[in-house]
TrEMBL record:
Keywords: Glycosyltransferase, Membrane, Transferase, Transmembrane, Transmembrane helix. The chain crosses the membrane at residues 12-30, 85-104, 124-148, 210-236, 256-285, 312-334, 376-396, 403-420, 426-452, 459-477. This is Uncharacterized protein. Coiled coil: none annotated. It comes from the Eukaryota. Belongs to the dpy-19 family. It is found in: Membrane. One of its GO terms (molecular function) is mannosyltransferase activity. It comes from Babesia microti (strain RI). One of its GO terms (cellular component) is nuclear inner membrane. InterPro entries: Dpy-19/Dpy-19-like (IPR018732).
Amino acid sequence: MSINISAYANTKHAYFIICPIITVLLVIRYRGIFSLPKNVQDIIYYSESSFYYSFYKHSTFAFGDIIDSRSEWPNSHISFRKYNIIFEYIVSLIYKVISFIYPVDRFNVYASTVLLIHSMGISSLFLISSIVGDCISGLCCIVLYMTLFQEKLISRISALPLRENISLPFFWMSLPPLLQIISHTHHTTNVDTNDINASDNKCYRQGYEICITISLLTWQFSSFLISTQLLVVIFLNYLQIITDNNCDAIIKSCAISLVGASILSLFSPLMIGSLLVKVLITYYISQIVYRRINIKPCNIYLLNNYQSIKQFIVKLLTFSVTVILVNLCFNLHFNDDSHVFDMFFVKIGLKEPNFDTLIYEMGTEFRFFPKFMCNLIFNTNMPHLLLVSLVMLLFTTKNASHYYLLLQTIGLTLLMLLVARLRVSALPMLCILASFATSVKFWSGIPLGIYIPSLYKKAIRLAIPMLILSFAARPLFRVGLVDEIWRYKYGENYYTDQAAELVQWVNTTIIREIGVYNKCAIFSDMPTSSILRSATDATLIVNPHYENIAVKQRIRVYYALASCINDPKWLFDKLNEYEAKYLIIQTKMLQVIGDGIESLINSLEYENASCKPRERLENRLLYKLLTNTQLFKLVFVNGNYLVFTLGNVNGLYKLDLNLPNSDELSLYLPVDDNGLMINFHGIALEEFSDVLREIGYVQASEQLYNFLLGYFNHRPE
């Protein structure tokens, strides 16, 4: 059985019908978020979701947006180069254009855009199943997707700003043109079979390149998904299922997409050092090696002789050795993304866990695929259809597209079992594979008996897929699709009154100080920092972009609060390195610390950080902050948060000076009851007296001026 390339043209009209229907269903499902008050919309999302949305909310297309100093103070960087937030800037531009014509709500424009893109991605699953099978299998794929649309199982669209909600739809949209390219692999004398003219092939390649480029720009992990895509294509090429010409075309298109995405992201280090770059470099190096050892291109379909098997083994070994060497070279220069491989190595027992892997393990999304999700899957009929499809594939003539979808699904499923969050990429592929059980094309290749009239055979072969389709749709009523739509109308909603109180306090107490006291930077955990970045104009020191080495070090400092370091001065000095003015701690840090936190703390490399099992709270650093009012002063508290301002050291406050043509100098000055931190950067010596007088430090200004004058005039050479 071969794929009819015209299936794309025959199903594209159905695609434009399916897409609006799915969009309407998603809008109905999450209708509640559109009517929430503005102050609630700002803080309903958790950690990275709130962080990414903050760039959209605060986007003004000013220079201050591009050069971001709010997320990782005192460091500044080009925002869209460091984070995958180009999408937020594009949607912000769309919002400004629409609002110029007609007044609309900023949040609603963002939510509608994400839901529309996700609908396009789901509709692409229908298109893929229809191309490989037929329209019935396409409908079956959508039905299976809906049965798995529960408990954040097959989709994380309930948290709109998550990167996979934007990137994955374009990854799915890249599959139809990819399948069209690789389908023309059989060498046959029938010119009508799988005949793609040059212009169509160019169109498919351009569509593939656009989708891959957008996917790379919007999600860091998309480079891993696209790498698995290329590895499957290369492996099938080594098996001679995909021709060398088609394989080269796909690799070239992917390389063009990577170059385009790199240019648009100003050559982001995370993209330059990604696995995708290593795979592309390995492929081209391997091609050079093949020419040197005189392995000729072979377009014979499948392995059918000893020479072909020998070529396959040589190519596979060459590629494997090359990718190891390339990876070793890259590891000397790029370390930001190493946690991904660390997690895999730890899970398969090749590496001991460290702080980075343990902090990911604290989130259920980065653990092994949980049992309750397996139960949710088996409550649907998708596993039964998947088994039928696999059996049918054994007894039908297979095309390169079938091999690709099978291997791609196996690869993504293995990744899903290791990291639960990757289920959003694997389960849709499983739906596509399972939908083949309802394909009339597949059933037409199965004999039903020589004594049945032809008309009855056609009716039976149509009735069987329809019965299987109804069997696939049964769980829609059992798991309660209608209940899922009408009962849960918000998706993820992490709004709390305590978070709203904290936001209000920051806006009324801290933000108004920025004009006089430079940047009142706040040191907190990743979720709290993300909320404050979205709902306030505060300057933060920590963000959830944990791949960055500088952020990793700051997170270690935060979790040291639960350690047994007995000197609060250690934390005070650490926070001064980041020019922090306020420290915000979640009160759950005061609760009983479980084994997961204990393991995390004991993996810290700070001196005296390790604690005995079930160590008392009184012996932990956090408790010492509450009892040491000279270093840390508690200025705000509610049910979920504690806010400290950095206090005094023996009645003096540390002042960091960075004067022109001088060494860095730290002084301790008298402070008022508020303990306000003052930083001067690049101010001339003669200006200190006036500056300090303006803010009320008259006596200190005279002493400081005389001291500095004597210091710089009489310091040792």
